[in-house]
Amino acid sequence: SGYETDNLIIPEGIRNTAYGALYECTKVTGITFPDSMEYFDCQSYFSSVNSMQIGIKKLHITKNLTIPEELAPMCPNLEEITLDPENKKYKLIDGVLYDKNVTHIECYPPKKVMDVYEVPDTVIGLYRYRMYKANVEEIILPESVGNLQIEAIVTPSLKRITILNPDCILLGNKAVANNLKGEYSGVICGYEGSTAQEYAEKFGFEFEIIGSGTKTIYGDADCDGKVMLNDAVLVMQAIGNPDAYGVGGSESSHITESGKINADVSGNGDGLTNMDALSIQKYLLKLINELPEQ
């Protein structure tokens, strides 16, 4: 214990770290793992469960390494994760660690700064502490996310979260919070009548209906907070194949009622037409300056 170096190099042949082996190594901010390493137990830093002394800022996951399930609260100073391309357990996208199929977030580094974090549309749920003290102000959860476990998102800087799955299950009063007390001072955005609205009203959080008032993003057919070419494509799909891509269609990427409101940008108020898709394309090509098209 008390090893005084900023980068600890673990020799080849070591497969894991014992409980308390690195206790009080507070100056260690980086660890170089060998390819032989199979599991890094953050509790190797502890002499008891209440004595967290982890200063790691950068973590490189080698090809055979498995990390603890609740890495973020154990490494509150973590800024950066890198991944060996031969590792078959995980995938790294924009500095955020996911399982290999990108269905779950494994770790958002607590010190990684991001204004808006848009969760990939393959993610189906968030486990506890996967976004613990994440330095992000806004989170957009796609329709694919079906549940948030208790304390899944405990983010002091969070000001706004958009939940696009109207049936997303939010467990307990701490699924979305600024701290472990369950307090939240930001805004929850979702559809009218959604579980997100029910959750916000139950615990006294501010709720904003997607597509209402001044927050409407004209042209944003897929309600992801941005206007891009895929919005024009979705409009044409919804018109050409309504059974699959219309409201309530069989495809998971079908347009929603709020998406229809956002996409009605040509002859505003006349419903969804091919002219709306054309207006979105004209806007993206800078042929017009704003939407809806006048």
Task: Write a concise keyword list for the protein shown above.
294 residues, alpha/beta, five-stranded parallel β-sheet, four-stranded parallel β-sheet, 6 helices, 18 strands, 16% helix, 21% strand
Question: Could you explain how this protein is built, in words?
Answer:
The protein is of the alpha/beta class. It has six helices and 18 strands. A five-stranded parallel beta sheet has the order 8-11-14-17-18, with helices on one face. The chain has a four-stranded parallel beta sheet with strand order 1-2-3-4, with no helix packed on it. Strands 5-6-7 form a three-stranded antiparallel beta sheet, with no helix packed on it. Strand 17 (about 185-190), helix 2 (about 195-205) and strand 18 form a beta-alpha-beta unit. The longest helix is centred in the C-terminal third of the chain and has 12 residues, at about 230-240. The radius of gyration is 22 Å and the shape is elongated. Residues about 45-55 have low confidence and may be disordered.
Q: Give the structural class.
A: alpha/beta
Q: Order the strands across the largest sheet as they lie in space.
A: 8-11-14-17-18
- Tell me about the biggest sheet? 5 strands, parallel
* Helix-strand sequence: EEEHEEEEEEEEEEEEEEHEHHHH
Shape: elongated
Number of helices: 6
Quantity of strands, as a count: 18
Q: Terminal Cα separation, in Å? A: 70 Å
Tell me roughly what share of residues is in helical segments: 10-25%
